[in-house]
Amino acid sequence: MSLECGSKIILVGNLYDTARQRKNTHTEGTWDSNAHQHQDAHNNNKLGLAQKQLLYCRVGIGYHLQILPNGNIGGVHEPTEYCWLKVFSMQWGVVGIKGLKSNLYLCMSSAGIAWGSHFMAECLFREDMEEDHYTTYASASHPGLYLALSHNGQAKRGNTVQKENPCAHFLPRLQT
């Protein structure tokens, strides 16, 4: 915005913005940096990068997802070596989840049963960040079936869960 006063032009908008930028540069820079780090971590899977991480489910008092060597899926309060997962992108918004110790992929059948297996089409999940900033994983092969843990840490059948249910809400926890 500018005002013309005789032969002088005053750029009011630019002066205000410049003063505001000088005043808040440090705090805005810190906030921007943190926001970018969070967004970068969330987008890594969207861009094809894989990360070693835990998936924390908020159900009950909280469980970490694990893939056991016998193919069983469940949750434990304290992370074990079977809880460390590699979540990797197959295409935009579609990920695979591999247990690093068990070397098995998380899969879901058409009946909504989760199990660990060698890689196949049923091992792909649609990853979505919900309004509450938790992540849900829906079967890419069988839409409407969600990965979830029960209040006692057992894998729930995906066809009994809605994406709004806390048992289907996971929080990725990266290795630091």
Describe this structure in words.
- 18% of the residues lie in helices and 35% in strands.
- The radius of gyration is 22 Å and the shape is globular.
- It has 176 residues and is of the alpha+beta class.
- The protein has 2 domains: 2-42, no CATH class; 48-174, Trefoil (Trefoil (Acidic Fibroblast Growth Factor, subunit A)), CATH 2.80.10.
- It contains 1 helix and 12 strands; from the N terminus they run ββαββββββββββ.
- The chain has one helix at 12-43; strands at 2-5, 8-11, 51-57, 63-67, 73-76, 85-91, 94-99, 105-108, 114-117, 124-129, 135-139, 170-174.
- The longest helix is centred in the N-terminal third of the chain and has 32 residues, at 12-43.
Offer a few descriptive terms:
Trefoil (Acidic Fibroblast Growth Factor, subunit A), single chain, 8-stranded antiparallel β-sheet, IL1/FGF, growth factor activity, 176 residues, two-stranded antiparallel ribbon, disordered N terminus, alpha+beta, 1 helix, Fibroblast_GF_fam
